[in-house]
TrEMBL record:
One record GO biological process: peptidoglycan turnover
GO molecular function, one term: kinase activity
Entries under InterPro entries matching the protein: Anhydro_N_Ac-Mur_kinase, ATPase_NBD
Membrane-traversing stretches: none
Protein name per its UniProtKB record: Anhydro-N-acetylmuramic acid kinase
Keywords annotated in UniProt: Kinase, Transferase
The organism of origin for this protein: Saccharopolyspora aridisoli
Pfam families, sorted: AnmK
Enzyme class: transferase
Family annotation (SUPFAM superfamilies): Actin-like ATPase domain
The EC number(s) this enzyme carries: 2.7.1.170
Length: 389
């Protein structure tokens, strides 16, 4: 199968091909290949402009849904090639365009990238719209990574309380061990860092944390940024760029009341991400922290996180899970669960009122034939080497 998604950074589509097998309570996952398909520059600009406080009318939304769907269709074709030219289905988390949260409760979520384009391009059925059912069941619809992490890391290996961290545009954690799994968004991951880099340098990111490394943390600005109500909300909780955006950063800089250099600004925003993640990890009693996502490529961010935590901080690659494609593999796993009639949410992580089979299925070129629903809920996931037959 092929897993597709585009994260809150909106820089392109992550795709992974994988083989998954269900054997009783065990899922075996073997990666077959991964790739990132960049969005065309104009489309990415339109997507970023559509985020709050931008205004998006119905015509613009229709165009974006179609253009993103076509890009996802191209990514799906690449994924099928990575799978050796054959796949059973495609799973797509789409592109989140808005996550509606009021008073700590998720009321709705919108992902674009119409799956019909994927089905038409590949002839394969498509499992999509994987968040909305969880929201309808009083969950947050995010983060869904806790499903993968609880199966992968919660194998009774004796590692104590582990916290899996994903640093994308928004950072989230999943807590495994010591009871029911928990997962929630901690706040900005790369969102404000990327925004400031774009504003100050015209580049979409602070590559290798170079700007942050050239500056020093501004304690006054950090205190202003940390004084945000989101960090005080109880878990489960979720957020997005509708909160941590240009207006949010502008207000903080206005409150600072004076100029700040590029390096100091990036150093402070990098420290903010590390601090809020570390605070959450300490609150959860982390005995080991496993990090994935684009943030693992920022050595300044990783160093700050390690400096603030007593627990060992590993990159997921160290444990056999490729950090760059982890979310695409998560998408494949969610599709696999739906395909087999199994719940794809973990209520303790998203806050949903109970387990739910997630998503909708768009038929491919032939009649839709699903397997008999599985009768045993999986309890662990084993990563297999790509070379394993």
């Amino acid at each position: 199968m092929v897993g597709l998604l585009s994260g809150t950074s909106m820089d392109g589509i992550d795709l992974a091909a994988a083989e998954l097998r269900l054997d009783g309570e065990t899922i075996e996952l073997r990666p077959l290949g991964e790739h990132t398909l960049d969005y065309p520059a104009a489309l990415r600009e339109d997507l970023l402009s559509a985020l709050p406080p931008g205004v998006l009318d119905a015509a613009a939304l229709c165009r974006l849904d179609t253009l993103v769907g076509r890009c996802f269709a191209e990514a799906a074709r690449l994924g099928v090639d990575l799978a050796g030219g054959q796949a059973d289905f495609v799973a797509s988390l789409g592109q989140t365009i808005y996550h509606w949260v009021e008073r700590g409760r998720a009321l709705g979520t919108l992902q674009i990238g119409q799956p019909a384009w994927i089905a038409e391009a590949t002839g394969l059925p498509v499992v999509s719209d994987l968040r909305t059912r969880d929201v309808a069941a009083a969950g947050h619809g995010a983060p869904l990574a806790g499903v993968l992490d609880s199966l992968w890391l919660g194998d009774g290996s004796g590692s104590g309380t582990q916290v899996a961290v994903n640093i994308g545009g928004i950072a989230n954690i999943a807590v495994i061990g010591g009871g029911e799994p928990r997962a929630y968004d901690t706040g900005p991951g790369n969102a404000l860092i990327d925004l400031a880099a774009q504003q100050r340098t015209g580049k979409p990111q602070d590559t290798d944390g170079a700007l942050a490394a050239s500056g020093s943390v501004n304690a006054d600005l950090l205190a202003i940024l940390l004084d945000d109500g989101y960090y005080r909300l109880p878990a489960p909780k979720s957020t997005g760029k509708e909160h941590f955006n240009a207006a949010h950063l502008d207000r903080a800089l206005t409150d600072l009341g004076g100029p700040i250099g590029d390096g100091d600004l990036l150093a402070t925003l990098t420290e903010l991400t590390a601090r809020t993640i570390a605070d959450a990890c300490r609150t959860e009693g982390a005995e080991r922290v496993v990090v994935a996502g684009g943030g693992v490529h920022n050595p300044v961010l990783l160093a700050a996180l390690r400096r603030q935590l007593d627990a060992p901080v590993l990159v997921s690659d160290d444990l056999g899970m490729p950090s760059d494609s982890k979310e695409a593999l998560l998408t494949a796993l969610l599709g696999f669960l739906t395909w087999n009639g199994l719940p794809g949410n973990t209520p303790g992580t998203t806050g949903a009122s109970g387990p739910r089979i997630l998503g909708s299925i768009t038929p491919g070129a032939t009649g839709l034939r699903l397997p008999e629903p599985a009768t045993t809920q999986p309890r662990r996931l084993i990563m297999r080497s790509a070379a394993t037959n």
